[in-house]
Amino acid sequence: METEDVGLVLGSLDATPLEFWIGVQEGAQVQLDDLVVVAARAVDGQEVHFYGMVDLVRKKYEGTQFDSDAFRAAAGHLPVEVSYAAHVQVTRIDPEIFIPPHPGDRARVVRGEDFQKALSFDTMEHRLPIGLTRGGESVFANLEFLDGTRGAHCSISGISGVATKTSYASFLLYSLFNSGALGTRAINAKALIFNVKGEDLLWLDKPNARLNAENRALYERLGLEARPFDHVGLYAPPTRSAVVPMPDVGSRQDDIRPYVWTMREFARGQLLRFVFTDADDARQQFSFVVTRVERALERAAQEGDKTDPAIVLDGDRVGTFFELLDKFEDGWLESVAPGMASGTLDAFRRRVNAAAQHMGHLVRDVDMGRYDIRWMDHRVTVVDIHKLHATAQMFVVGVLLKRLLSQKEDQASADPLVFVMLDELNKYAPREGWSPIREVLLDIAERGRSLGVSLFGAQQTASEVARRVVANAAIKIVGRLDAAEAERGEYGFLSKIARLRATLLQPGSMLVAQPEIPVPILLRFPFPSWATRASEAALPENIDDLLEGMKL
């Protein structure tokens, strides 16, 4: 075994099959997250190995009575001994004979293959590399809990700007597509990524000029090649003023396509519901109006020239969202929802007009199919929504996820797998209230596994996300947490010590909990090998060689 003697099981504190204390011998060192093994003998002589993770380490003086004795001991006036002990949480018993280890049994720190055995990585048929320990050991997740075989979905929580949630979610996707864990399914697997903040995800297809040799070595240790994402499609919303849709982007101007919907697509897909995001809009009468209007629009979309992006309502050609608003004002609405109270219809008009200020430019009179978001044409599709108002963001996310679910339901198989990456999940699937997009996300959380859809949801506070969404995530991850948030029940998978540690995590470090391992694992992940901003994509990938050549 790849082990190192570090001490003995203590007899002064209880030892059980699930946890025990070890005394650390002089000259040895044990720290948090170390994995140890203790071999004990059963009554029949069979050797039982207890693998466990160190989750608490402490030192104290033995032979002292008062706090002030520490000063006397330090000055050499009081003879004392230092007790150096570590608490071990058992992660695996091999074979499964649930007896406690015996006081005095040798404890050893494990590495290499034995480290993998201690965390049951050796039993995972499909291993996905997800990071490295502080000691450089590879950490894996069981792919079967992400691809729908035994579970799906991933929940990532942490403080904005510190927890590096988006970076880690991106790394997980990169590992899925490049580690070989998916096997032949990787050829057709897709990722749909919503770029919610800044421009970070608009550079996935460009190499990161800041990636140095040390970072490349970390990728190699995980069996990955350090390079950008490939087969990437980038989409951004159109500018409001341009007659022909042009993408409204920032520092990146090339290879980005605009996306809009035609009125016929809007009507045929029953997308009006995603215009309304307020919980008050769920009132029975108001919802009835929305449903009646959607059905009337859908009937209009099935009539006339199917290649015409516009629809005809009462003899009027309606090609844009703003032209639809005009129809709501000229009596058409009353004909669609007869008998409804005028106050309810007026409330409908007020809300749809308010929403139109933010998302109306996304429904235009353009050629059918020309500005679609075609995620099936790319391995990775990035949909930029960071410049849109919250109302428009929710419209885009809701429409695309509804369309994705509809397509998956029409298939006879869960393949191809689709991984959806969405930040600010607490806004789209809040704990309280109602919205159409919340219902879609709940549907994905509960049925996505069978449909081949896995949600990588990120949020600052899991306590503000719908319980059913968080509960259905097979793998739970936290970065740096706020101290008050760390005490919430949603983080019950963390021990008291782990919750405290989560408030101290630095960027690039995450605590990962997965079903087959009884303790969360602290890991770090490599610096992105893809650019996350314009400055990182501005220089060639071989910048180190280039600079060295310039010195010559």
Protein architecture, described:
- With 552 residues, this protein is of the alpha/beta class.
- The protein folds into three domains: 121 residues, Elongation Factor Tu (Ef-tu), domain 3; 297 residues, Rossmann fold; 100 residues, no CATH class.
- Helix content is 29%, strand content 22%.
- The protein is built from 17 helices and 20 strands.
- Strands 12-11-15-10-16-17-9-18-19-20 form a ten-stranded mixed β-sheet, with helices on both faces. Strands 1-2-5-4-3-6 form a six-stranded antiparallel β-barrel.
- The relative contact order is 0.15.
Topology:
Elements: E1 3-9, E2 19-24, E3 35-41, E4 47-62, H1 69-74, E5 81-94, E6 106-110, H2 112-118, E7 127-132, E8 138-142, E9 154-157, H3 165-178, E10 190-195, H4 213-221, E11 232-236, E12 256-258, H5 263-268, H6 284-301, E13 311-313, E14 316-318, H7 321-329, H8 332-336, H9 342-359, E15 380-384, H10 390-410, E16 418-422, H11 425-428, H12 436-451, E17 453-459, H13 467-471, E18 475-478, H14 483-486, H15 496-502, E19 509-513, E20 521-524, H16 534-537, H17 543-551
Parallel strand pairs: 9-17, 9-18, 10-15, 10-16, 11-12, 11-15, 16-17
Antiparallel strand pairs: 1-2, 1-6, 2-5, 3-4, 3-6, 4-5, 7-8, 13-14, 18-19, 19-20
Helix pairs in contact: 6-9, 7-9, 10-12
Q: What is the structural class?
A: alpha/beta
CATH secondary-structure class of the largest domain: Alpha Beta
- Give the number of domains: 3
- Ends: how far apart? 49 Å
